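sry for the spam today, last one i promise. C-alpha coordinates for design, 475 residues
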Protein backbone atom coordinates (compact mmCIF):
# COMPACT_ATOMS: atom_id res chain seq x y z
CA UNK A 1 0.00 0.00 0.00
CA UNK A 2 1.33 3.43 -0.86
CA UNK A 3 1.70 6.25 1.62
CA UNK A 4 -1.16 8.07 -0.07
CA UNK A 5 -3.50 5.11 -0.12
CA UNK A 6 -2.79 4.31 3.51
CA UNK A 7 -3.94 7.81 4.40
CA UNK A 8 -7.08 7.58 2.34
CA UNK A 9 -8.00 4.33 4.06
CA UNK A 10 -7.64 6.05 7.41
CA UNK A 11 -9.95 8.84 6.33
CA UNK A 12 -12.50 6.49 4.82
CA UNK A 13 -12.61 4.63 8.10
CA UNK A 14 -13.35 7.82 9.96
CA UNK A 15 -15.89 9.03 7.44
CA UNK A 16 -17.76 5.72 7.63
CA UNK A 17 -17.97 5.96 11.38
CA UNK A 18 -18.82 9.63 11.76
CA UNK A 19 -21.04 10.16 8.77
CA UNK A 20 -18.27 12.09 7.06
CA UNK A 21 -18.99 15.21 9.06
CA UNK A 22 -15.40 15.83 9.99
CA UNK A 23 -13.57 16.36 6.74
CA UNK A 24 -14.71 19.87 5.93
CA UNK A 25 -12.29 21.47 3.48
CA UNK A 26 -10.09 24.31 4.63
CA UNK A 27 -9.54 23.50 8.28
CA UNK A 28 -8.69 19.85 8.68
CA UNK A 29 -9.42 18.34 12.06
CA UNK A 30 -6.22 18.06 14.06
CA UNK A 31 -4.92 14.56 14.10
CA UNK A 32 -6.21 13.55 10.69
CA UNK A 33 -4.44 13.43 7.38
CA UNK A 34 -4.19 16.93 6.04
CA UNK A 35 -3.82 18.48 2.65
CA UNK A 36 -0.09 18.63 2.23
CA UNK A 37 0.67 15.21 3.66
CA UNK A 38 2.91 13.33 1.24
CA UNK A 39 1.97 12.01 -2.15
CA UNK A 40 3.80 8.76 -2.91
CA UNK A 41 5.71 9.15 -6.19
CA UNK A 42 6.62 5.47 -6.53
CA UNK A 43 3.83 3.20 -7.79
CA UNK A 44 5.53 0.00 -6.56
CA UNK A 45 3.62 -1.39 -3.57
CA UNK A 46 6.74 -2.14 -1.56
CA UNK A 47 8.30 1.26 -2.13
CA UNK A 48 7.47 4.80 -1.10
CA UNK A 49 9.18 7.83 -2.61
CA UNK A 50 8.48 11.33 -1.43
CA UNK A 51 9.88 14.78 -2.07
CA UNK A 52 10.51 16.82 1.05
CA UNK A 53 11.36 20.51 1.08
CA UNK A 54 12.46 22.63 4.03
CA UNK A 55 11.90 26.33 3.42
CA UNK A 56 10.94 29.56 5.15
CA UNK A 57 7.18 29.95 5.38
CA UNK A 58 4.46 31.69 7.34
CA UNK A 59 1.78 30.11 9.47
CA UNK A 60 -1.01 31.48 11.61
CA UNK A 61 -0.69 30.77 15.31
CA UNK A 62 -2.26 33.88 16.83
CA UNK A 63 -5.52 34.74 15.11
CA UNK A 64 -5.04 37.04 12.15
CA UNK A 65 -1.26 37.30 12.67
CA UNK A 66 1.36 35.66 10.61
CA UNK A 67 4.28 33.85 12.21
CA UNK A 68 7.44 33.38 10.14
CA UNK A 69 8.70 29.82 10.52
CA UNK A 70 10.87 27.24 8.85
CA UNK A 71 8.66 24.44 7.61
CA UNK A 72 8.73 21.10 5.87
CA UNK A 73 6.39 20.54 2.95
CA UNK A 74 5.62 18.06 0.22
CA UNK A 75 7.51 19.07 -2.91
CA UNK A 76 5.10 16.99 -5.01
CA UNK A 77 2.25 19.39 -4.18
CA UNK A 78 3.54 22.88 -5.00
CA UNK A 79 0.23 24.44 -3.96
CA UNK A 80 0.07 22.70 -0.59
CA UNK A 81 0.22 25.11 2.34
CA UNK A 82 3.26 25.11 4.60
CA UNK A 83 2.42 23.54 7.93
CA UNK A 84 4.04 23.15 11.31
CA UNK A 85 4.31 20.30 12.06
CA UNK A 86 5.28 19.17 8.58
CA UNK A 87 3.65 16.47 6.47
CA UNK A 88 2.90 13.08 8.00
CA UNK A 89 5.06 10.39 6.46
CA UNK A 90 2.70 7.41 6.45
CA UNK A 91 4.22 4.07 5.44
CA UNK A 92 3.82 0.37 6.07
CA UNK A 93 6.22 -1.91 7.86
CA UNK A 94 8.61 -3.47 5.37
CA UNK A 95 8.31 -0.73 2.77
CA UNK A 96 11.44 0.80 1.31
CA UNK A 97 11.19 4.53 1.89
CA UNK A 98 13.09 7.11 -0.13
CA UNK A 99 12.98 10.78 0.74
CA UNK A 100 14.46 13.27 -1.66
CA UNK A 101 15.22 16.27 0.49
CA UNK A 102 15.78 19.80 -0.81
CA UNK A 103 17.19 22.33 1.59
CA UNK A 104 15.69 25.72 0.70
CA UNK A 105 16.58 27.22 4.07
CA UNK A 106 19.21 29.95 4.44
CA UNK A 107 21.20 27.62 6.71
CA UNK A 108 22.61 24.12 6.53
CA UNK A 109 20.58 21.31 8.06
CA UNK A 110 20.12 17.54 8.27
CA UNK A 111 17.18 15.26 8.97
CA UNK A 112 17.19 12.74 11.76
CA UNK A 113 14.52 10.02 11.59
CA UNK A 114 13.96 9.79 15.32
CA UNK A 115 13.49 6.16 16.39
CA UNK A 116 13.80 4.62 12.92
CA UNK A 117 16.38 1.84 12.76
CA UNK A 118 18.43 2.49 9.65
CA UNK A 119 21.91 2.59 8.26
CA UNK A 120 24.09 5.06 10.18
CA UNK A 121 24.76 7.02 6.97
CA UNK A 122 21.03 7.88 6.85
CA UNK A 123 20.68 8.92 10.48
CA UNK A 124 21.23 12.62 9.85
CA UNK A 125 23.15 13.12 13.07
CA UNK A 126 26.11 15.42 13.65
CA UNK A 127 28.56 12.51 13.40
CA UNK A 128 27.03 10.41 10.63
CA UNK A 129 26.30 12.93 7.91
CA UNK A 130 27.74 16.09 6.42
CA UNK A 131 25.22 18.93 6.69
CA UNK A 132 23.10 19.65 3.61
CA UNK A 133 24.07 23.21 2.56
CA UNK A 134 21.45 25.78 1.54
CA UNK A 135 20.22 25.12 -1.98
CA UNK A 136 21.43 21.51 -1.98
CA UNK A 137 19.75 18.12 -1.80
CA UNK A 138 20.24 14.77 -0.16
CA UNK A 139 18.35 11.54 -0.65
CA UNK A 140 17.58 9.59 2.50
CA UNK A 141 16.44 5.99 2.34
CA UNK A 142 15.59 3.23 4.77
CA UNK A 143 13.42 0.17 5.15
CA UNK A 144 10.65 0.71 7.68
CA UNK A 145 11.56 -2.24 9.90
CA UNK A 146 9.43 -1.47 12.95
CA UNK A 147 5.76 -0.57 13.21
CA UNK A 148 5.39 2.43 15.47
CA UNK A 149 5.08 6.17 15.71
CA UNK A 150 8.18 8.22 15.02
CA UNK A 151 9.11 11.72 13.94
CA UNK A 152 11.69 13.57 11.91
CA UNK A 153 13.60 16.76 12.62
CA UNK A 154 16.99 18.44 12.03
CA UNK A 155 20.02 17.36 14.03
CA UNK A 156 22.00 20.54 13.66
CA UNK A 157 21.41 23.52 15.96
CA UNK A 158 18.35 21.48 16.86
CA UNK A 159 17.32 23.87 19.63
CA UNK A 160 16.85 26.59 17.00
CA UNK A 161 15.79 24.59 13.95
CA UNK A 162 13.14 22.42 15.63
CA UNK A 163 11.79 25.44 17.49
CA UNK A 164 11.64 27.31 14.17
CA UNK A 165 9.14 24.72 12.93
CA UNK A 166 11.12 21.83 11.46
CA UNK A 167 9.39 18.82 12.98
CA UNK A 168 6.94 16.28 11.58
CA UNK A 169 5.33 12.93 12.40
CA UNK A 170 6.09 9.57 10.82
CA UNK A 171 3.92 6.48 11.24
CA UNK A 172 4.90 2.95 10.29
CA UNK A 173 1.73 0.88 10.13
CA UNK A 174 1.67 -2.81 10.83
CA UNK A 175 1.20 -4.95 13.89
CA UNK A 176 -2.07 -4.92 15.77
CA UNK A 177 -4.78 -2.92 14.02
CA UNK A 178 -7.60 -2.62 16.56
CA UNK A 179 -11.11 -1.76 15.41
CA UNK A 180 -11.44 1.98 16.10
CA UNK A 181 -13.77 4.73 14.98
CA UNK A 182 -10.86 7.09 14.24
CA UNK A 183 -7.08 7.19 14.29
CA UNK A 184 -5.27 10.40 15.05
CA UNK A 185 -1.70 11.63 15.23
CA UNK A 186 -0.84 14.45 17.59
CA UNK A 187 2.35 16.48 17.62
CA UNK A 188 2.49 18.37 20.93
CA UNK A 189 4.62 21.48 21.06
CA UNK A 190 4.98 24.84 22.71
CA UNK A 191 6.15 27.99 21.00
CA UNK A 192 7.28 31.35 22.25
CA UNK A 193 5.62 34.10 20.25
CA UNK A 194 5.30 37.87 20.63
CA UNK A 195 1.87 39.52 20.46
CA UNK A 196 2.75 40.50 16.87
CA UNK A 197 2.80 36.81 15.96
CA UNK A 198 6.58 36.88 15.50
CA UNK A 199 8.62 34.15 17.16
CA UNK A 200 10.31 35.52 20.24
CA UNK A 201 14.04 36.09 20.04
CA UNK A 202 14.31 36.28 23.81
CA UNK A 203 16.13 33.38 25.38
CA UNK A 204 16.19 33.61 29.15
CA UNK A 205 18.51 31.90 31.59
CA UNK A 206 15.53 29.75 32.54
CA UNK A 207 15.08 28.74 28.88
CA UNK A 208 18.70 27.62 28.77
CA UNK A 209 18.33 25.83 32.07
CA UNK A 210 15.09 23.88 31.46
CA UNK A 211 14.69 24.12 27.68
CA UNK A 212 12.97 26.98 25.90
CA UNK A 213 9.58 27.61 27.47
CA UNK A 214 6.81 28.58 25.07
CA UNK A 215 3.88 30.81 25.95
CA UNK A 216 1.50 29.02 23.56
CA UNK A 217 0.75 25.30 23.59
CA UNK A 218 0.08 23.70 20.23
CA UNK A 219 -1.62 20.51 19.09
CA UNK A 220 -0.63 19.88 15.49
CA UNK A 221 0.28 23.52 15.19
CA UNK A 222 -3.11 24.77 16.45
CA UNK A 223 -4.03 26.46 19.71
CA UNK A 224 -7.45 25.72 21.15
CA UNK A 225 -7.79 22.78 18.80
CA UNK A 226 -11.08 20.90 18.57
CA UNK A 227 -12.06 17.52 17.22
CA UNK A 228 -15.28 15.56 17.00
CA UNK A 229 -15.52 12.06 18.41
CA UNK A 230 -18.41 9.72 17.70
CA UNK A 231 -20.59 8.73 20.65
CA UNK A 232 -19.82 5.14 21.55
CA UNK A 233 -16.65 5.39 19.50
CA UNK A 234 -13.18 4.30 20.36
CA UNK A 235 -10.19 6.16 18.99
CA UNK A 236 -6.51 5.45 18.65
CA UNK A 237 -4.36 8.50 19.39
CA UNK A 238 -0.63 8.64 18.90
CA UNK A 239 1.37 11.41 20.51
CA UNK A 240 4.84 12.79 20.10
CA UNK A 241 6.26 15.60 22.22
CA UNK A 242 8.30 17.78 19.85
CA UNK A 243 8.87 20.64 22.29
CA UNK A 244 12.36 21.87 23.11
CA UNK A 245 11.82 21.45 26.81
CA UNK A 246 8.14 21.30 27.79
CA UNK A 247 6.90 18.15 29.50
CA UNK A 248 3.30 17.33 28.62
CA UNK A 249 1.29 15.67 31.40
CA UNK A 250 -2.03 14.78 29.78
CA UNK A 251 -5.39 14.29 31.46
CA UNK A 252 -8.68 13.54 29.74
CA UNK A 253 -11.53 13.73 32.23
CA UNK A 254 -14.58 11.66 31.33
CA UNK A 255 -12.68 9.20 29.17
CA UNK A 256 -10.30 6.33 29.68
CA UNK A 257 -6.79 6.31 28.27
CA UNK A 258 -5.24 2.90 27.72
CA UNK A 259 -1.60 2.83 26.65
CA UNK A 260 -0.99 0.28 23.90
CA UNK A 261 2.33 1.42 22.47
CA UNK A 262 5.58 3.20 23.24
CA UNK A 263 8.29 4.70 21.06
CA UNK A 264 9.28 1.57 19.16
CA UNK A 265 6.00 -0.34 19.03
CA UNK A 266 3.30 -2.05 21.03
CA UNK A 267 3.46 -2.88 24.71
CA UNK A 268 3.03 -6.49 25.76
CA UNK A 269 0.11 -5.70 28.08
CA UNK A 270 -1.88 -2.46 27.65
CA UNK A 271 -2.41 -0.44 30.81
CA UNK A 272 -4.79 2.27 31.93
CA UNK A 273 -3.55 5.74 32.97
CA UNK A 274 -5.12 8.75 34.64
CA UNK A 275 -2.32 11.06 33.51
CA UNK A 276 0.06 10.45 30.66
CA UNK A 277 3.47 12.09 31.02
CA UNK A 278 5.29 12.62 27.73
CA UNK A 279 8.77 14.11 27.91
CA UNK A 280 10.45 15.69 24.87
CA UNK A 281 11.11 13.13 22.13
CA UNK A 282 8.91 10.37 23.57
CA UNK A 283 5.87 8.81 21.86
CA UNK A 284 2.80 7.11 23.29
CA UNK A 285 0.03 5.23 21.49
CA UNK A 286 -3.27 5.15 23.37
CA UNK A 287 -6.85 3.96 22.99
CA UNK A 288 -9.45 6.48 24.13
CA UNK A 289 -12.96 5.40 25.14
CA UNK A 290 -15.77 7.36 26.71
CA UNK A 291 -19.41 6.98 27.64
CA UNK A 292 -20.02 10.69 27.00
CA UNK A 293 -23.09 11.35 24.91
CA UNK A 294 -23.48 13.28 21.71
CA UNK A 295 -23.52 17.01 22.46
CA UNK A 296 -21.19 16.71 25.46
CA UNK A 297 -17.54 17.74 25.37
CA UNK A 298 -14.33 16.49 26.96
CA UNK A 299 -11.10 18.42 27.31
CA UNK A 300 -7.58 17.10 26.93
CA UNK A 301 -5.46 19.11 29.36
CA UNK A 302 -1.84 19.55 30.19
CA UNK A 303 -1.55 19.22 33.98
CA UNK A 304 1.30 20.54 36.08
CA UNK A 305 4.22 18.21 36.43
CA UNK A 306 7.09 18.96 38.78
CA UNK A 307 10.15 18.43 36.60
CA UNK A 308 12.60 20.12 38.94
CA UNK A 309 14.20 23.52 39.46
CA UNK A 310 11.06 24.73 41.24
CA UNK A 311 9.25 25.65 38.04
CA UNK A 312 6.04 27.43 39.03
CA UNK A 313 2.72 25.60 38.82
CA UNK A 314 0.74 27.52 36.19
CA UNK A 315 -2.21 25.21 36.57
CA UNK A 316 -3.72 22.92 33.99
CA UNK A 317 -3.92 24.21 30.42
CA UNK A 318 -6.48 23.17 27.82
CA UNK A 319 -4.98 21.51 24.77
CA UNK A 320 -7.82 20.00 22.80
CA UNK A 321 -11.60 20.06 23.03
CA UNK A 322 -13.30 16.80 22.13
CA UNK A 323 -16.87 17.44 21.00
CA UNK A 324 -19.04 14.35 21.12
CA UNK A 325 -20.91 13.85 17.86
CA UNK A 326 -23.45 11.38 16.45
CA UNK A 327 -23.05 7.75 17.46
CA UNK A 328 -20.90 5.28 15.57
CA UNK A 329 -22.74 3.53 12.77
CA UNK A 330 -21.88 -0.02 13.78
CA UNK A 331 -20.62 -1.60 16.99
CA UNK A 332 -16.87 -2.02 17.21
CA UNK A 333 -15.08 -5.33 17.61
CA UNK A 334 -13.64 -5.91 21.09
CA UNK A 335 -10.04 -4.78 21.60
CA UNK A 336 -7.47 -7.50 21.05
CA UNK A 337 -6.04 -9.04 24.21
CA UNK A 338 -2.64 -9.72 22.71
CA UNK A 339 -0.52 -6.80 21.63
CA UNK A 340 3.24 -6.58 21.23
CA UNK A 341 5.43 -9.63 21.56
CA UNK A 342 8.73 -7.94 22.28
CA UNK A 343 11.34 -10.56 23.23
CA UNK A 344 12.87 -9.66 26.55
CA UNK A 345 16.61 -8.90 26.31
CA UNK A 346 18.57 -11.37 28.44
CA UNK A 347 20.82 -9.36 30.74
CA UNK A 348 22.07 -12.25 32.81
CA UNK A 349 25.76 -11.64 33.48
CA UNK A 350 26.17 -8.76 31.02
CA UNK A 351 28.40 -5.77 31.74
CA UNK A 352 27.06 -2.47 33.00
CA UNK A 353 28.07 0.96 31.78
CA UNK A 354 27.41 4.17 33.67
CA UNK A 355 26.41 7.45 32.09
CA UNK A 356 26.13 10.29 34.55
CA UNK A 357 24.07 13.33 33.56
CA UNK A 358 25.16 16.52 35.28
CA UNK A 359 24.55 20.24 34.99
CA UNK A 360 26.57 23.21 36.23
CA UNK A 361 25.25 26.68 36.83
CA UNK A 362 27.55 29.38 38.09
CA UNK A 363 25.21 31.13 40.51
CA UNK A 364 27.79 33.82 41.31
CA UNK A 365 27.84 35.02 37.70
CA UNK A 366 24.38 36.12 36.49
CA UNK A 367 25.54 36.15 32.85
CA UNK A 368 26.92 32.63 32.96
CA UNK A 369 25.10 30.05 30.85
CA UNK A 370 24.31 26.67 32.35
CA UNK A 371 26.38 23.84 30.92
CA UNK A 372 25.62 20.13 30.74
CA UNK A 373 27.73 16.99 30.84
CA UNK A 374 27.65 13.25 30.32
CA UNK A 375 30.35 11.52 32.36
CA UNK A 376 32.04 14.87 32.88
CA UNK A 377 32.43 15.56 29.16
CA UNK A 378 30.67 18.13 27.01
CA UNK A 379 29.75 17.61 23.39
CA UNK A 380 31.59 18.01 21.01
CA UNK A 381 34.66 17.35 23.18
CA UNK A 382 33.74 13.77 24.01
CA UNK A 383 35.54 10.44 23.99
CA UNK A 384 33.63 7.98 21.79
CA UNK A 385 32.14 5.06 23.69
CA UNK A 386 33.47 1.98 21.87
CA UNK A 387 31.38 -1.21 21.98
CA UNK A 388 31.23 -4.47 20.03
CA UNK A 389 28.52 -5.16 17.49
CA UNK A 390 26.08 -7.85 18.61
CA UNK A 391 26.83 -7.56 22.32
CA UNK A 392 24.44 -6.54 25.06
CA UNK A 393 25.06 -4.21 27.98
CA UNK A 394 23.14 -2.54 30.74
CA UNK A 395 23.23 1.24 30.62
CA UNK A 396 22.88 2.89 33.98
CA UNK A 397 21.82 6.42 33.17
CA UNK A 398 22.42 8.27 36.40
CA UNK A 399 20.63 11.59 36.64
CA UNK A 400 22.84 13.50 39.02
CA UNK A 401 21.14 16.82 38.34
CA UNK A 402 18.34 18.92 39.79
CA UNK A 403 15.88 18.31 36.99
CA UNK A 404 14.50 15.46 34.91
CA UNK A 405 16.25 14.64 31.63
CA UNK A 406 14.76 12.64 28.71
CA UNK A 407 17.58 10.43 27.43
CA UNK A 408 17.58 9.38 23.75
CA UNK A 409 19.72 6.80 21.95
CA UNK A 410 20.02 6.73 18.16
CA UNK A 411 20.14 3.67 15.94
CA UNK A 412 18.80 1.02 18.28
CA UNK A 413 16.07 0.54 20.81
CA UNK A 414 16.47 -0.36 24.45
CA UNK A 415 14.30 -1.89 27.14
CA UNK A 416 13.78 -0.27 30.52
CA UNK A 417 14.85 -2.68 33.26
CA UNK A 418 13.97 -0.38 36.14
CA UNK A 419 14.09 3.21 37.29
CA UNK A 420 15.64 3.33 40.74
CA UNK A 421 14.30 -0.15 41.33
CA UNK A 422 10.75 0.58 40.08
CA UNK A 423 9.74 -1.74 37.27
CA UNK A 424 8.32 -0.22 34.07
CA UNK A 425 4.55 -0.44 33.42
CA UNK A 426 5.07 -2.73 30.44
CA UNK A 427 7.59 -4.34 28.14
CA UNK A 428 8.15 -2.52 24.86
CA UNK A 429 10.91 -0.92 22.85
CA UNK A 430 11.97 2.61 23.77
CA UNK A 431 14.44 5.05 22.26
CA UNK A 432 13.80 7.90 24.69
CA UNK A 433 13.34 7.51 28.43
CA UNK A 434 12.56 10.13 31.04
CA UNK A 435 15.14 9.87 33.81
CA UNK A 436 13.88 11.68 36.92
CA UNK A 437 16.33 13.85 38.84
CA UNK A 438 18.53 12.03 41.32
CA UNK A 439 17.37 8.67 39.91
CA UNK A 440 18.97 6.01 37.77
CA UNK A 441 17.38 4.36 34.74
CA UNK A 442 18.73 0.90 33.98
CA UNK A 443 18.37 0.06 30.31
CA UNK A 444 19.15 -3.12 28.36
CA UNK A 445 20.79 -2.36 25.01
CA UNK A 446 21.85 -4.81 22.34
CA UNK A 447 24.28 -3.20 19.90
CA UNK A 448 22.62 -4.47 16.75
CA UNK A 449 23.52 -1.56 14.47
CA UNK A 450 27.11 -0.93 13.46
CA UNK A 451 28.50 2.57 13.09
CA UNK A 452 28.47 5.95 14.77
CA UNK A 453 25.45 6.92 16.83
CA UNK A 454 24.57 9.67 19.23
CA UNK A 455 22.92 9.63 22.59
CA UNK A 456 21.73 12.76 24.32
CA UNK A 457 19.21 14.54 26.44
CA UNK A 458 16.21 15.49 24.28
CA UNK A 459 15.85 18.84 25.99
CA UNK A 460 17.40 20.53 23.00
CA UNK A 461 19.13 23.33 24.89
CA UNK A 462 20.81 20.64 27.00
CA UNK A 463 21.96 18.58 24.03
CA UNK A 464 23.32 21.64 22.22
CA UNK A 465 25.11 22.79 25.37
CA UNK A 466 26.95 19.59 26.03
CA UNK A 467 24.64 16.76 27.13
CA UNK A 468 25.33 14.61 24.10
CA UNK A 469 27.62 11.66 23.54
CA UNK A 470 29.02 9.45 20.78
CA UNK A 471 28.58 5.68 20.59
CA UNK A 472 30.73 3.70 18.16
CA UNK A 473 29.45 0.17 17.52
CA UNK A 474 32.44 -1.66 16.06
CA UNK A 475 31.99 -4.55 13.64
CU1 LIG B 1 15.03 13.37 18.23
CU2 LIG B 1 19.14 12.89 18.43
O1 LIG B 1 17.07 13.20 18.33
CU1 LIG C 1 18.42 17.44 29.82
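last one done:
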Amino acid sequence: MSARRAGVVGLALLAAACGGSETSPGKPAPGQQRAGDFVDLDPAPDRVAVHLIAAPAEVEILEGKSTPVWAYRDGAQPEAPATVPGPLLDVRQGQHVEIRFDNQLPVETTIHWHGIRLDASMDGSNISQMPVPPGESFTYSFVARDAGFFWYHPHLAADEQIEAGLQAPLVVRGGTEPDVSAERFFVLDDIKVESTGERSEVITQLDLMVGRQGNVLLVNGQRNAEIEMAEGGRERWRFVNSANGHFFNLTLGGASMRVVGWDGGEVDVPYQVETLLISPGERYDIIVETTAASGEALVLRDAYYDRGHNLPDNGPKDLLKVNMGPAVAAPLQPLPLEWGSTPRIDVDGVASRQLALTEVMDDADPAAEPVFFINGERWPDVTPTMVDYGTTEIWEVVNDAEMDHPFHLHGMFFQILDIDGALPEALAWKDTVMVPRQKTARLAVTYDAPGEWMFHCHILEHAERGMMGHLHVME
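The first helix runs from residue 3 to 18. ok im logging off now
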